[in-house]
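Changelog-linked ticket: D-glutamic acid example.
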Amino acid sequence: MDNRPIGVFDSGLGGLTAVKELEELLPGESVVYFGDTGRVPYGTRSRETVRRYARQDMAFLTRHDVKAVLAACGTVSSTAADIGAALPVPYFDVVGPTARAAVKACRGGRIGVTGTSATIRSGAYAQAIAGLDPSLQVLSQPCPLFVPLVESGFVSPEEEITRLAAERYLAPLREAGVDVLILGCTHYPLISAIIRRVMGPDTVLIDSGREAALALGEYLKDRDMLCAPGQPRTADYYVTDAPEDFAAGAGLFLGHGVEGRRVEDIESY
Ligand code: DGL
């Protein structure tokens, strides 16, 4: 048994979708969450900048005595895996577990990948899928408007503006006949109903946050690293700017409210 918390981080609010999955799958586990709300978004930034931010975010979490680190952010996951692999605690990101689930679900030979511009530019998903099954075709599509649309609350299935954006981004993937679509960004599960409608009922959607949470849960169970039964659960949330906005937006991603504590000096980590 290991009663230490799981460390989860993201560029901002979005990683709370992964925390929600962890709450469902591993309800006894404590969490320390770090959201870099002062420097979000990461998905439009250069590889060098994302890597610098990711290094600091991971250093912050490892100073909180966590038993494992989960990079919930698709952008960090696809850009800074080597930095995570060098941590003194087990590191999980969304790319490997999501690619494995997509390959397993793929029947027709074509996988679509969606994510931020930085995630798609990294080629991390295409590489991971090719490593699992080189016969599969991967079609990648950045969807940069999805993050601001979700953060603006345009998530209801009837939301015309989001449907139009989804139609525009996803039409090439639908026309190419992908049978599996990776939602490779923290925010996309919130508009999965719209994405599903655009892609049609036969496309399997793979939620990267859920796959990463499942993989982390398996790992902890296999090594007897879950918290002891009856251990009181704690959840601490740290953000680098505007904790009041974080608290206001958290409900959309997590399904319940949380308070965020402010971190002043992330650049010093
Ligand atoms: N969390 C980011 C991701 O999953 C989306 C928001 C951002 O661009 O920072 O890639």
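Closing comment: Example verified and attached. The beta strands are 6-10, 31-35, 68-71, 91-93, 110-115, 137-142, 180-183, 204-207, 235-239, 261-262. The pocket of D-glutamic acid is lined by residues 10-12, 14, 40-43, 73-75, 116, 119, 147, 185-187 (CB under 6 Å).
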